[in-house]
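TASK: fixed-backbone design
INPUT:
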């Protein structure tokens, strides 16, 4: 997402200004918060970064809309196919007199319940599929990974590993995210907690060190 052509412009900033710009970019990318500063230079540089982020988000929104239309069309065809199968099964029962009106109503209720369970199953699967797409899309977003690596003080491969762990945990807890922003905001908070826990965890004792006090005198 970040363009190499903008590096010269960023290099002209001081370390303090670059830090302010980095935080402002991350806030706008995740929450849509605009950058309020009195520095004319920072406003100009942030405006350029804002255009890049907006263009990236518009492209992603267009892809999501296309995927949504494809999924809706697929579901419509499935429902039509299911309706055709029900009608065919009904036509095979040529001797209607063998079934009472109550039996016919019971069979209809059973069919309705089956279709409801099928819709729930599809909805549940789409929830997990969408969550997995958020994680997979984030892993391929190099700009996002580099930004997180700097914010969390972790190497990029560790950030990618944390994304996989987070997606697995959300799947296990059946935690759904309504949007990419919701997923990334939740992931950043979760990853920050994980890295803080790891930093506070005492280092493992080397196996070569003596475990018995008598071994210290050998």
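OUTPUT:
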């Amino acid at each position: 997402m970040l363009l190499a052509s903008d590096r010269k412009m960023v290099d002209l900033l001081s370390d303090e200004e670059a830090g302010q710009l980095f935080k402002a970019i991350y806030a706008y990318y995740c929450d849509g918060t605009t950058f309020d500063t009195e520095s004319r230079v920072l406003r100009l540089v942030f405006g350029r970064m804002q255009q890049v982020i907006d263009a990236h988000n518009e492209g992603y929104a267009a892809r999501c809309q296309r995927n949504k239309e494809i999924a809706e069309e697929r579901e419509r065809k499935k429902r039509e196919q299911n309706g055709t199968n029900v009608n065919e099964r009904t036509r095979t029962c040529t001797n209607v007199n063998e079934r009472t009106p109550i039996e016919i109503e019971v069979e209809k209720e059973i069919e309705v319940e089956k279709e409801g369970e099928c819709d729930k199953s599809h909805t549940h699967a789409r929830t997990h599929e969408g969550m997995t797409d958020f994680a997979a899309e984030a892993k391929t977003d190099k700009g996002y990974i580099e930004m997180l690596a700097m914010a969390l003080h972790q190497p990029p491969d560790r950030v990618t590993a944390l994304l996989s762990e987070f997606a697995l945990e959300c799947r296990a807890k059946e935690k759904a995210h309504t949007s990419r922003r919701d997923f990334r905001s939740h992931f950043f908070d979760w990853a920050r907690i994980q890295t803080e826990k790891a930093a506070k965890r005492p280092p493992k004792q080397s196996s070569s060190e003596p475990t018995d006090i008598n071994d210290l005198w050998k």
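COMMENT: Helices lie at 7-11, 15-31, 40-92, 101-140, 142-152, 156-173, 180-200.
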